[in-house]
Amino acid sequence: MAISIVTQGKDVSAWLQALKAARPNLKVYAHPEEEDKNAVTFALAWNHPSGIFRQYPNLKAISSMGAGVDHILRDPNLPEDVTIARIIDEDLSQDMAEFVTALVLQHTRGLQQYSRQQKEQQWQPQPYKRARGVRVGIMGLGVLGTQVAAMLAQVGFTVSGWARHAKEVTQVQVYAGAEEQAEFLKNTDVLVCLLPLTDATRGILNKETLRQLPQGAYVVNVARGEHIVDEDLIDLIDNGHLAGASLDVFGQEPLPQDHPFWSHPKVFVTPHIASVTDPASVVPQVLANYDRAQKGEALQNVVSQKKGY
Ligand code: OXD
To answer: pTM to 2 decimals?
Structure first.
């Protein structure tokens, strides 16, 4: 029995090291090295070549190497009887909460403006927004969204959230479903996207929805680039409806050199680093799922292929 790490263009050496340290006798392959496909019962995946999992006749489960699973589920040729799981990790959630809080504060305290001013040696105090006067709306109240909401509320922001179905989240006013989306957007000064990418959420931030945000609202996307229609976002920033955006994720990554986001003065670009899986921290849960799969037990953090998260 073996694990195969199936990725494209990702350095997996830290994963190999962490798996070896935790389970020295377990055979772990790193695709595309030569491997005994019959022996592979469990795969770790990130951006795998479409259709490849059909080549492993004894595969029982595929685990994402991160929180998202859209990169697995977009493969139309996944084997039907394989369980898909994802990573849920305290460090990942904490890192995401810290990063989003930093971005929101960067916006409300106007820190990018001071960076521009420093280049010109300009001593020019600017007005700023106090946290309690700013309504942050989080789209997506899963594990990450809930933790981000808690940290923002602790800092003092007024936090609301939008989810597919109604739920209770401490200190968060929750809006649910399509019926309450407009009300949610209307009451959001800083919109944070933390939705899973599914057919229902692809392109959800477009000119119709973004226009419903109040004049001067700000957008933070730390979910997937495909949630946003890039041209619509740029148009609404350029026509003054939106104050700007912080984007960590993009439809194409790395962001192409000629993409207008790179040079837009009101767009802050980071290279998909909001929260990065630490193999050493998550290998225990990966191996626990591997063991469960071998014994035919239910896995943890299983994803519904139908719902897409
Ligand atoms: C993830 C990510 O899904 O890093 O974990 O985007």
So the answer is: 0.96
